Amino acid sequence: MWLFFTLATTFIWGLAELFYKKGARPDEKYAHLKITVCVGVVMGLHATFMLLTQDIGYDPINMIKYLPVSLCYIVSMALSYFGMRFLEESISDPIENTSGALCSLMCVVFLGERLGIPSVCAIVIIVVGILGLGFLEGHGDTDRKKKLGKKMAIVAFAMPFCYAILDALGSFLDIYFLELETTPLVGVTADNIEDVANTSYEYTFFIVAILLLIFMKTKKVKFELPTQRDKILAAVFETAGQFTYVYAMSGNGAIAAPIISAVCVVSLLLSRIFLKEKLKWTQYIFLACVIIGILTLAIIEGE
Known about the structure:
Blueprint: H1 2-23, H2 31-53, H3 61-65, H4 67-84, H5 89-96, H6 99-111, H7 117-138, H8 144-148, H9 150-177, H10 193-218, H11 229-260, H12 263-274, H13 281-302
């Protein structure tokens, strides 16, 4: 069953990326905040369902304890939603998926871990791909500057990098928070520590959603849920993927992890088919470098 859940997670998260992009309309000023609200509400409902159906012994103080990690993930996602308004999903998603490589580098720098030569080569391939995409962005091989202006084009292209850095930092902090020997979380055991952390994250996301709703209310932003179908579907697929991910990793994580990392490939294909995204052939070459590097690193780390 673990293989079924692994493939399901990959496809579901690919669908989530598709609907994120559809919901992040460039002409809708607060689209990124509305997506954040939808995701926060769905996650809050899921966390409540878990508490009502599962005995995980949750202590609310853990929301505060886990706050540094939660904020890294939430802010990174909000920035990603902003970038999606102006950037092709085919470009943004592979760049965002480099967070795993960044997390590995953080472990080397701050924890003294060592990377093997294959891992170093994979990271170099990722860097080459990113530098190539950046070069094309800065030298007129895209028409983004003409559409958005130079400043906004730079901001838009920076968003997936901001996501990757913050998501990598969240993953790095999780190494500390999800180890029983070092975790500041209270009342946790080997059986419930991941559920406690995830519940804390989801409820924090829910609180952020409420605060954003209040902010948009003060700005008199029109926000009617029946008109937010794509944003709601993205939130549902995001949360559903989180659910199947747990079962995928509990079965055979060493094989599941590299398969799930291929979500950026699924996202690229779905964007090409349903969003009709067309890139320059040179962009596809550098995107291929990024994706190959990500998959290679995931396979090596999963061994």
